[in-house]
Design brief:
The protein has two domains: 15-66 and 164-336, Rossmann fold, CATH 3.40.50; 67-158, 3-Layer(aba) Sandwich (Rossmann fold). Helices cover 43% and strands 14% of the residues. The protein has helices spanning 20-30, 43-49, 67-77, 80-83, 94-106, 120-128, 140-154, 165-182, 196-208, 224-231, 254-262, 272-286, 292-303, 305-308; strands at residues 39-40, 52-57, 87-90, 110-115, 132-136, 157-158, 187-191, 213-219, 266-270, 312-317. The strands form two sheets. A six-stranded mixed β-sheet has the order 1-2-10-7-8-9, sandwiched between helices. A four-stranded parallel β-sheet has the order 5-4-3-6, with helices on both faces. Helix 3 packs parallel to helix 5 and helix 9 (196-208) runs parallel beside helix 11 (254-262). The longest helix has 18 residues, at 165-182.
């Protein structure tokens, strides 16, 4: 089933955009490889938020982030001839690690371009899973240029971190699982950067629960998705955003914007201070090592409590690859908190 997306012209038909059938196909394709992550709840957090919260624990996914879903789907959707050429991508960290592991499950080469200021823990994950690491200057343009060079040199197939139909469909399996586990939801809150997770989850959620409101959470200083959805035109960010949410510095992709706009997604922007406060609460109460880019979904709910009051709200905890040497509230907290069990 294809949804009637709100496009700018008849030429913008959704023929190149994934639909719910693609999410179902992705779920079957990745089933031998991906983890069915749990849904976590805490009464004390429900009381703080004034809503019933269902946290989809994607930080416990293989490689420590939801990204393995989309990467695995994209790798296993390749025919044998294309797969033999290997894969290449650019990433702030989590997608690179996910693609590296997905490529390893199929026995093919993987090249990953990361900005030279990338999170050390995330860079280490990429190498741990067997990819060849390449560095570029920060910023999407520099990353894409280096990626194009590697494609030309190696013949590898590009698996874009978010503007790829198979990646989007794979990410949507997180919402598919969440709704099967938690039941109907009034709202689904999703961190956003490029928008692959948001778009994929919107496809799944709106098919299963048409009345579910789709909310994307974004840093105040990296609010291109919020401005794009508000204005109805995709807007690129100015330079490289300065935010503690290192996984949310990318620009929203064109197909992701089209999908989210078509599903009437709304955005909530959050300060880094509020995101870090929410992250600390999740560590203390849920005993889960989530990164700021994941905690922003909870921070968005806390920022607009009245909007979610009394509702059943799903939140995607998108990743848990934390650089323990750079904790925002200090290393003295580490011994009191649960260890990271994400990488498997």
């Amino acid at each position: 089933m294809r949804y009637p997306l709100r496009m700018d012209s008849p030429a913008d038909a959704a023929t190149l955009l994934p639909h719910f059938g693609d999410v179902l196909a992705a779920a079957a394709r990745i089933a031998p490889h991906a983890t069915v992550t749990p849904v976590l709840q805490a009464r004390s957090l429900d009381e703080i938020a004034g809503a019933r919260l269902f946290f989809k624990a994607e930080h416990l996914q293989r490689t420590g982030a939801f990204k393995f879903r989309g990467a695995c789907n994209a790798v296993w959707a390749l025919d044998d001839d294309r797969a033999r050429q290997g894969v290449v991508t650019h990433s702030s960290g989590n997608h690179g690690a996910a693609l590296a592991l997905a490529a390893r499950t199929r026995g093919i080469a993987c090249h990953v371009v990361v900005p030279d200021n990338t999170n050390r823990a995330k860079a280490a994950n990429i190498e741990r899973y067997g990819a060849t690491l390449h560095f570029s200057a920060p910023g999407i343009a520099a990353r894409e240029a280096r990626c194009a060079e590697l494609q030309a040199q190696t013949g590898a197939v590009l698996v874009h971190p978010y503007a790829d139909a198979e990646v989007i469909a794979g990410q949507g399996t997180a919402a598919l699982e969440l709704l099967n586990q938690a039941g109907a939801l009034d709202a689904l809150v999703i961190p956003i950067s490029g928008g692959g997770l948001g778009a994929g989850c919107a496809i799944a959620a709106k098919h299963i629960a048409p009345d579910c409101e789709i909310i994307v959470a974004e840093p105040d200083s990296a609010d291109d998705a919020a401005r794009s959805l508000r204005g109805g035109v995709r807007i690129a960010p100015d330079g490289v955003p300065d935010t503690v949410c290192d996984g949310l510095r990318g620009a929203i992709g064109e197909p992701n914007f089209r999908l989210l706009r078509g599903f009437d997604a709304q955005a909530i922007t959050v300060s880094d201070a509020d995101t870090v406060a929410a992250q600390k609460l999740l560590w203390q109460v849920l005993k889960q090592t989530v990164e700021p880019s994941a905690a922003i979904a909870f921070a968005a709910v806390l920022k607009e409590k009245a909007r979610f009051a009394g509702k059943r709200v799903g939140l995607i905890l998108s990743g848990g690859n934390v650089d323990l040497d750079a904790l925002p509230w200090g290393a003295t907290c580490v011994p009191q908190l649960a260890p990271n069990r994400a990488a498997k």
